[in-house]
histidine kinase (Novosphingobium humi), 623 residues
Amino acid sequence: MLKVLQSSDIENLFLNHLPIAVAIFDSEMRYLACSRRWMLDYGIQDQCIIGKSHYEIFPEIDGRIRDIHRRVLAGESLSCDAEAFHRLDGSVDWVEWDMVPWHGPAGEIAGAILFTRVVNDLVRMRQEAVTLRTELNLLIDSARQYAISMFDPDGQVVLWNKGAERLYGWSEAEALGKSISFFFENRASDEEQVRSWLQTALVSGPVVERSWRKRKDGTSFFGEVNISRIEDGDGLLVGYSTVVRDITEEYSQLRRIEASEAQLRAILDTVPDAMVTINENGIVQSFSAAAQQLFGYSPDEVIGKNVAMLMDEPDAQHHDEYLKRYLATGHRHIIGNMRCVNGRRKDGTLFPHELYIGEAISRDSRVFTGFLRDLTKRREAEAKFQELQSELIHISRVSAIGTMATALAHELNQPLTAIANYVQSSAILLAPYEDEAVATVRGAMEEAAREALRAGAIVRRLREFVARGDLERVIVRPCDLVAQANALGAVGSKARGVVCVLNVPDSLPCVLVDRVQIQQVLLNLLRNALDALDDTGVIVIGGEVMGNMLHLSMMDNGPGIAPQLEAELFEPFVTSKATGMGIGLAISRTIIEAHGGRLWYEKVDGGGAAFHFTLPIAETGDA
């Protein structure tokens, strides 16, 4: 069975069996890896050198060699056929070496690779030179993931490794002698661009660029190329080396990520809630379109600044302290919870909003995202709702007092009149008697009669005042009256499961009424229905034209009205509720009759109650 080797196994196998000494360093000349031959050649096989400085392992390295290292780490590829290396024990090793930079994923120089061979006599140096060149070529050809090639000063191919054959599809024989621009896309500007890269490599050092390349079969790939100049021992230009890596998949993934980010940004820009992201230092990282509209700032005015500029005191003053405390303790007070706070706009005005903060943690950073929903309109609606409720409650109390006064006036007027009559009659009967005591009693009874008549007059005037109460009539659409009353009276009914159906067409003619009082009637009828229903109840409010009157009805599927109460249903102090006062329907009838309409009750077939009332239709003045 074929054994599949991991990349680490291949690396170890490569380094353990490479016949030359190879060491790989980072940008600080610390060992990342080295071959077994390296350890043997320099007598350090018993030491663990990975992670240690090259200068710690070889303290005899002088300033000249350190300068070579700095040049390689700056981008040069250097080599030497034979060089004397003086050891601390006085011995001398002749060493051939090649040192090249290696590049990270982003094209940056991440370190150096040093190839060395110890040669201690001239014959061996000459023999080893051929072997070293062969081994280097094998090393180049073994790098099958990289297309390694060399071009002469005119840009013609003089070296073409197996990786280049695999990546481009042209064999070494087919590629030798071709111009470097041949391997790019067929565009008129390719030749000029490639010449520009070669000139840059010649004058300024290695060039790293990314562009589309073409293969022999006509397909293309997106490649990353490193172009470096090659000099001989006298510093004269020999040619250029190129290392090409296929990054098509990486490029496609990057484009997909960019497209995904653009799509996400577009979605977030259309979300009605404002979104602000900050880092763990409280600095704004992004500012959505909704946030711009909400606060009045442009992104350039906010991004890069502390988010406290969007807050009211004391949150603005203590925000950084809160954030540091959370990062230190991990104890959540705000994150993951909804809270209501005040925000500060660019013009300095404050506004209430709901704030929800989420947290995202990656390996290297932490981001906090705040979602904000403006509560200004909701608070205004709540204030208007409370004002309307207070107004209705006030009118209800006034109406209740008026109805009670009317009822009391009606009930007390007759007893007071009877008392006055009885007292006056008794005084007349005692008139013939001249006795002093009788005269005193007669005077007291006459005074009592006068006071009784006076009390009756007061009650009568009170009744007349209530009966003549002025109405603030306005022209109102019936559908608006019913909708507003339903919004007030049916609060919580949906949570209970009660369904309220409104069948009041928009096309119904307007009525001339006291809006608040008629809403009080609708509210009273609606609450009576809700009190009588269970969680499966249904209330239907309907409206239609009846002659020159508007007819409104409210029907429910509850238990209905007890038969013994039907006859006195609209009388004061008659109720079926354990805690009711029995004046709601009496008040409602008084209001409807004061408007020139009528209020009545009907049974519903199959159970339930139906209340009906009429209102005068407003005259529009049309001919």
Notes: The first helix runs from residue 7 to 17. The CA atoms of residues 68 and 518 lie 98 Å apart.
